[in-house]
Amino acid sequence: MSRAAARVLVVGSLNTDLILRTDTEPPDDGAARVTGLATASGGHGGNCATVLAALGCRVSLATVVGDDAEGAAMLAELAGAGVDTEPSQTLPGASTGRVFIPVYPGRRHMLMHRGATDLWDPKSCETVPFGAYAAVVLFDPPEPVALRVLELAAEAATPVFWNPGGLQAARLPGQAASARWLAVNRAEYRAAFGAEPDARHLGGVCRGRDRTVVVTLGPEGAMAGEAGEVRRVRSRRVDTVDATGAGDAFAAGFVAAYLRGRSLPEALRWGAAAGAYAVTVPGARAPGLTLAEVDKPHPIEEVP
Question: Contact at 8 Å (CB) between 21 and 107?
């Protein structure tokens, strides 16, 4: 089997995104008019799995949803997109998570009601055949689940690409050693390492360690540190329509390149291209993304 046809397991959340846009950010105890309201399928796991499938990967998703209409609809939607949802679970009596995303001019954040995700039992990991996968993309299950995934994947010698998200970033330094690849955004890097993600600090974080740390920088692109060396790719100039899910698309592009045997600089370029595309379309799942889009030539910088 070629690496392009290898199987990849995504472990992460599913939720409904409720995106609220305003023209102004209200002061404390103030009010603002919502000028745009959208509801879409989301969750780091579902977003990444969908993009991986669009890029030709054989992808399975391990997630947890409630026994409600939202959870059933999202699992069906993923199956229709070519994602194997067999490793996923539906929890009786639980509700599927929801994320409220207020978008102000120049600023946005996420308010997470994780629902069934926070009821995820780490014992469910024991039945997952980690050795059957060429890679695991790990996102944001509860910490005991994330740690068990790291342990079982290490036992199976399956590399883990870990993108823990803001809720777990502050506890990263002691746990990330089990992950071959660690991906964070600028705010998560600060929380994890207590410093700005500049080239000098990133090089020091990776020096003498068998891991790669990737930092996404939004419109500025992304950079990666490996064995003390740092590379950077600038983002393509695009008109942003919806930034939701851009980091998940980046992770999918990066892993898709890895599964095709591409180098670290090329994987960085694929990730940045997928993330740049994702912000040009509404929703978190980067509809319409293709291999041709992520494989367009784009320069990689060597950062001293």
Answer: no
Provide the token pair at 201: 């600090």
**What residues pair up with 39 in beta bridges, in sequence order?**
18
State the burial class of residue 293 (Cβ atoms within 10 Å of its Cβ: 0-12, 13-18, 19+). Answer: middle
CB 32 within 8 A of CB 21: no
115 phi/psi in degrees, rounded to 5:
55, -125
Which residues are 257's β-sheet partners?
none
Q: What are phi and psi of 287, to 5 degrees?
A: -60, 135
CA-nearest of 236, 246, 229, 244 to 269 is 236
SS3 134: coil
Q: How confident is the model at residue 2 (pLDDT cuts 50, 70, 90)?
A: very low
pLDDT for residue 132:
95
As given in the structure block, the two tokens for residue 164 are: 């823990």
Question: Higher pLDDT residue, 154 or 180?
Answer: 154
Residue with tokens 């409720």: 18
Q: 215 forms bridges with which residues in the sheet?
A: 184, 223
| Interstrand relation of 212-216 and 222-226 (parallel, antiparallel or unpaired) | antiparallel
